[in-house]
Amino acid sequence: MKEWFSGIVRGKTTDSRGKDKKVRHLFIVDATGFTEAENVLVADKFPVYKEPKVISLKREAIEAVYDECDTESAVWWKVVIGLEWLDVKGRTKVSKCTYMVSSETAGDVKDVINKCMQGSVRDWKILKIEATQVREIIVHKEKHNDELR
């Protein structure tokens, strides 16, 4: 399982009229720790903003990321799925898993989740689908030692 971190970058951008505007954008980063997550945000997003700063960084429990939509109007959706299982006494328990899906509508998100969970052995159901303010999910690939030389 990958480690995911959500970070908020604050900075200034230039709007269509040429004026500077203060913005805060939320990004999710794949990293091994807080330091690496901050370094990835600095390397990837700081050239885009004026006076950038990472103001928040926290660990996220995300099982998988499905980037299914490449259009500009795509939104990142947070989907919580309940996986049902039986405990020792025979009672039904539910484990919650969080997935991130890129799509335009909630109906498309359901289709993606149904397709991904099709071969699941456990019983499952979608508990919650909500649109997020996530701007981009950055999948960070660390360079091998040979590439650093």
UniProtKB/TrEMBL annotation:
InterPro entries the record matches: DUF4494 (IPR027848)
Protein name: DUF4494 domain-containing protein
Native organism: Bacteroides uniformis
Lineage: Bacteria, Pseudomonadati, Bacteroidota, Bacteroidia, Bacteroidales
